[in-house]
Amino acid sequence: MRQTSRSVPDLKPLKAVFDRRLLFDRNARMVARMQPQLKSGQAFVAVGALHLYGEQGLLSLLTARGLPGVARVLNDCAIPVSYD
């Protein structure tokens, strides 16, 4: 059965809430909590890949807080995935 544009819900508002609450707000809290340990050099951090990307991702937030080396290490350690 073919769906018309009226039968497909607009998911943009839901995605905006998802991005803000599950990614961006959490990213800001994670960076604030991990920053002291990262600065001391006594840290191991494991996060899901979705938290790394974008202007509000962990890599950008760490760089903005003066930890570009940590962001570079995280980026270099990312494992490329192929779905061939």
Structure description:
- The protein has 84 residues and is an all-alpha fold.
- The protein has one domain (12-77).
- Helix content is 55%, strand content 0%.
- The chain has 3 helices and no strands.
- It has helices at 12-40, 58-64, 68-77.
- Helix 2 (58-64) packs antiparallel against helix 3.
- The protein starts with 11 loop residues before the first helix and ends in a 7-residue tail after the last helix.
- The mean pLDDT is 81.
Structure summarized in a few sentences:
The protein has 84 residues and is an all-alpha fold. Helices cover 55% and strands 0% of the residues. Helix 2 runs antiparallel to helix 3 (68-77).
List the helices and strands and how they pair.
Elements lengths: L11 H29 L17 H7 L3 H10 L7
Summarize this structure as a short list of keywords or feature phrases.
84 residues, mainly alpha, 3 helices, 55% helix
